[in-house]
């Protein structure tokens, strides 16, 4: 029987797991569940006889792959796959997929939620500001960026987007102002929301030079990856600019230093919460099991990323 392991340090909502279970059962597959595991060794032990693997931000290293001789497919139930060693997967003949778009509304709602939190001074009783009429710059107009734009328009914000991989026709068709140069996005937008993946081109790319030109009362929102920020340069910038605020769904490596130095000017979710809604878990989880079944039954490689 084909064995599918769901390995999630941060578990899916129970409703998602039970719907994934029914689809797998119907297809005659066996589900194995490893949730809230404590060490990488637990994951290594669990992959020994499985055929397919569903993960979230769980780390799929060379070692995990080397210990999974029957493994044919890994589906990252979500967008970013920087947690999977793609090269090692390819060497081991393991197909890697993601489930793009399935959790993007959840992440986008969190962006606006955290922006309201910061605009209202983290609800400390002092007079805050409104989002209406302010400018937001969306750095990368993919699935999450598009949803942020849609919701920000509902707040009557002025919405700009920069994405070298998306044509200006697509951006403008959504009623968003397309920006050609990344520096111009940062110059014009009081709020910047990051939606770039973490890869060799983007790691530490959000740096002092880019951020220093943001308008007065700038707010940087990061629901992408902590690695894209140059943390030392952001600390320097926030020292130089007492009006600058930073919100992130992924605590930075230098979290204590940020909190100590900048207090209420920073906000970090205690756990990565962007995709953590029942709806997103159900959407991404169901997409993942269907992609596995379609791959195993029909060799359908849609959404393959390696
Ligand atoms: C993603 O890449 O899909 C998001 O960052 C969500 O990650 P998570 O599934 O670990 O919450």
Q: Helices and strands in order, then pairings?
A:
Blueprint lengths: L2 E6 L5 H13 L3 E6 L4 H7 L5 E4 L6 H5 L6 E4 L9 H6 L3 E4 L5 H16 L15 E5 L3 H12 L3 E5 L5 H6 L3 E2 L3 H7 L2 E4 L13 H4 L7 E4 L8 H10 L4 E4 L6 H8 L3 E3 L9 H21 L8
Parallel strand pairs: 1-2, 1-3, 3-4, 4-5, 6-7, 6-9, 7-8, 9-10, 10-11, 11-12
Helix pairs in contact: 1-12, 5-6
This protein binds 3-phosphoglyceric acid.
Q: Can you walk through the features of this model?
A:
It is built from twelve helices and twelve strands. With 306 residues, the chain is of the alpha/beta class. Strand 4, helix 4 and strand 5 (95-98) form a beta-alpha-beta unit. Helix 1 packs parallel to helix 12. It is elongated and about 60 Å long. The structure holds 3-phosphoglyceric acid (3PG). 3-phosphoglyceric acid (3PG) binds at residues 10, 56-57, 78-80, 103, 272, 274-276. The site of 3-phosphoglyceric acid has 11 residues, from loops.
Task: Give a concise summary.
Helices cover 38% and strands 17% of the residues.
Q: Any descriptors?
A:
single chain, Rossmann fold, 7-stranded parallel β-sheet, 5-stranded parallel β-sheet, elongated, binds 3-phosphoglyceric acid
